[in-house]
Amino acid sequence: MAFAERISRLGTETAFAVSLAAAAWGAQGHRIYPFHLGDIDLATPATIREAMDRAVAEGKTGYCPGPGILPLREAIAEDVGMRRGLTYGPDNVTVHPGGKPVITKFTQALIEFGDEVLYPNPGYPIYESQIEFIGARPMPYRYVPTETGFRIDLDQVRSLITPKTKAIIYNDLQNPISAESTQAEKEAIAQIAIEHDLWVLSDEAYFEMRYSGTSSSIASIPGMQERTVILYTFSKKFAMTGWRLGAAIAPAELSAVFGKLNTNNESCTTHFVQWAGVEAIRGDQSGAIAIREALRGRRDAAYEMLSAMPGVTLSKPNATFYLFPDVTDAMAAKGIATLPEFAERALKETGVSFCTRLHFGRPQPGEDRMYARFAYSGLPEADIREGLGILAQWIEA
After folding, report:
1. Contact at 8 Å (CB) between 200 and 168?
2. Helix 286-307 / helix 381-396 crossing angle, nearest 10 deg
3. How far apart are CA 54 and CA 204, in angstroms?
4. What pLDDT does 16 receive?
5. Could you say which DSSP state residue 97 is in?
6. Residue 51 lies in a domain
7. Listed residues 282, 303, 336: the one ending a domain
8. 302-312, pLDDT tens digit by residue?
9. Residue 118 has what pLDDT?
10. What predicted TM-score, i.e. pTM, was given to this entire model?
11. 30 Cβ neighbours under 8 A, 6+ residues apart
12. Does residue 138 sit in helix, strand or coil?
């Protein structure tokens, strides 16, 4: 069977493969501690669920405008603008079935075959996949570890710029490494974008999933709003991963293109789900606060357990729901040479399932440390302590 050539360039989110392996092992009767997938096992707040039920009862089950219903676009524009010190209107907002389609439509609307796009590596794997799928050249930029977390290698970013560079994907509060830019780092990326006239996709999925400090957007830096697309999602703050609801906030002319792509790709985002989104933003926020506080407790537990393990080092992030420890010395103590072997043995000998650095982009030249990613959003604090306690005993054995 012959497929279009471009399919060979399409990657995937390999964390789901880890999930399948864990499920298969669990189906054999083994206890699994699922740290592999960034899903949330906490319930979507009742007020949001009830708003969806009302919308269904009111007959909001048909087609709606491709760019999204006006009340939701107005709510997103007001909320996103207020939190970033910017002014947006509904013409700047398009609604999508999740945050992920924003990546696809950004590349579809702006990137030509042969263009070069800078993106973080390690980073969310769909960046690399969509750049290659559109026929552009992916240009990964790296992070360097510091005592307080990871920092973008700005010298490398500057060295990657060529006349073919069209855009940079920037993910502050980053998946998988939970890196948070300093203001100076953010301003340096902005200056590069302005100097070289680049589009910026600012993935802000975790903008409000933080436990201390205050988030800011690269779009708020002078000269950046007109060249930045903000990726917004309901999945994290409101525990709505399976609802598939997100948005792009962009210059109005580009938003019109996104709306046209919506009409071609999916007609519209599910009508009654959008009304639930209005309630999420406009309604009672106590449910969202409770979600964040539960995740804070999980972060603290996971960090406490991992940082106490011999041969494991990590920093404590202020945001996201991921920890990205260096496990090089722990692997060496176990006589394990590769990350796939480390993850497989951990699963089968402890039940603890996690992703590794290899699930987040091709390793770059010169990488000599080994990292694993632990997502703590999908299991309660007691299970976090129990599972990581077993993992610690295994590492120490």
Report:
1. yes
2. 10
3. 30
4. 76
5. S
6. no
7. 282
8. 999 999 999 99
9. 98
10. 0.95
11. 348, 351
12. strand
